[in-house]
Amino acid sequence: MTAVIAPSAPADPSAASAPATDAPQDVRDDVQETARTAPEAGRDGTAPEAGQDGAYEAARELVARDAREFGVYARTGGWTFGLKVARSVRPGGQSAAQTPKASAKEFGELAGCSAERVMRFYKAWDRAADDGLVPHFEELEPGQEVELPDADVWLTYYVPRSSASSARGTAIMAAAEAEGIRPTKALEVAENPTALRAAILADPSTAQAARHALLDRIKEDPVLQVDLARDIARTDDLKKAVAGEARAADRIEYVRKIAEEGQVRTPAGQTIDAPAELREEAERHLSLIDELEPEEAGEWASEAYDTVKTLVAETVEADPELRVQERRTKFYSSLQKATKVFEELTLDDAVDFGDIYEDDMVQRLEELQEAIGTCLTALRKASQTA
After folding, report:
1. Lower Cβ count inside 10 Å, N or C end of the chain?
2. What whole-number distance in Å separates Cα of residue 99 and Cα of residue 93?
C-alpha cells in the first residue's frame, strides 16, 4: 500500500464533509458525527451567515485531512514515521555535501524531539531493510513514497526504549524472542516493576506466571536460590507450607517406589518385595495422583500412603518369618538409638556432678538400669534355649 498523507481538495462541497473511504470505520463514524454536530444550513432553520461559508468549508477540509492521515497511520502504524526518518535522515558515513538529507540531530531539532528518538526509528527501518521489507536508506529520496508493511509488523523492529541497548536490555530482548513475544513488551514490564508487582498481587494467573518464571530461573541462579530459601526460613507460613509439601512428596515417593520398583520399606526399616496385591493398590493410587493438579495431590497422597502402609503392616503380620525379622530389626534399631543417646552423655572429669545433680536423675538411671537388667536376663535365657 502507498502511504500518502498530503491532503487533496475535494471536487465538491459534499466530499469535504465525508471521511476518506480508505479510513477505518471508527474514524469515518467520528467524522460523520462531527459533521452532524457542526452548524449546517437548515439544521436549526437558519443558514450560515454571510462570510462563514469559506471558514466552515476550510474546517471541514481539516477534518477530512485528519481522517485521511489517521487512516494511513491505522494501516501502517510506525512505518509512516519510520519512512519520514528513512527518506530524510542521511545514512552514516555520508556528509552534508553528498546529500540534502539531514543528520539525526538536525532532524530531531526540526521535529522538536531528541536525536536518540530519531535513531530508534532509524534503526528499526534499518533492521527491516536488512530483512527485505523496505528499501535501504540509500535508495530513498526526500519526499519519496513507498509501499509500507502492515502496522503490526512495525513492533517487531521498533524498540521504543533506550534500555534495549544495554546488556540487561539485550538479555531481556533475547529471552522475549525465545518465548515468542515482542521484546518491547518484556522491556516495558522490566522497566516498571511496580506495575508488575501490582499485577501479581491482583491477578492469580499473573502470579502463577511469575512463579513458573522464578522456578525456571532459580535452576541457574545460586544467589536467587539462597535468597528464596532465606525468605522461606524467615516466614512461618511458608515454612509450614514447605514442610507439608515435603511430607506429601515423601509419601508419594513411598507409593511410587512400590508401584514402579516392586519394593517396600517396612516400619522397622526392612526392604522387602511387595506382594502383587500391594503393588496393584499402589499403582491404582499413583495413577490417580498423577492425574491431579499439584495443589490437589497432597490430600490424596496422605490417603494413598495410609492405605499402602496398612497393607504393608498386614503383609508383615501375615508372614511368621517376616514378622519375627521385623521385630528383631525394630528391637535392634531401638537399641542402637538408645546406645547413641547414652554415649552422648558427658561423663568425663570436666563434669561437676555437684552442679548438675537432681534427685530424679538418680531415679531415672536406676529405672533404666533395672530395665536393662531385665532385658539382659531375657536375652540370656533366650540364648540358652535357642
Report:
1. C
2. 11
pTM for the whole thing?
A: 0.41
18 grid coordinates: 465525508
**Cα–Cα dist 1/145, whole Å:** 10
The more confident residue out of 345 and 5 is 345
Helix %, strand %, coil % of the chain (to 5): 70, 5, 30
CA angle 361, 366, 368 (to 5 degrees): 95
Report pLDDT digits (tens) over 113-157.
888 888 888 988 998 999 999 999 989 999 999 999 988 888 778
d(CA 275, CA 134): 72
Residue positions counted in the chain: 386
CA distance 169 to 183: 9
CA 351 to chain centre: 59
Q: For residue 265, what are the β-bridge partners?
A: 271
- What does the alpha-carbon distance between residue 81 and residue 97 come to, in Å, rounded to a whole number? 25
- Cα dihedral sign, 234-235-238-242: positive
Q: Residue 263: phi, psi to the nearest 5?
A: -125, 150
Determine contact, residues 251/262, Cβ cutoff 8 Å.
no
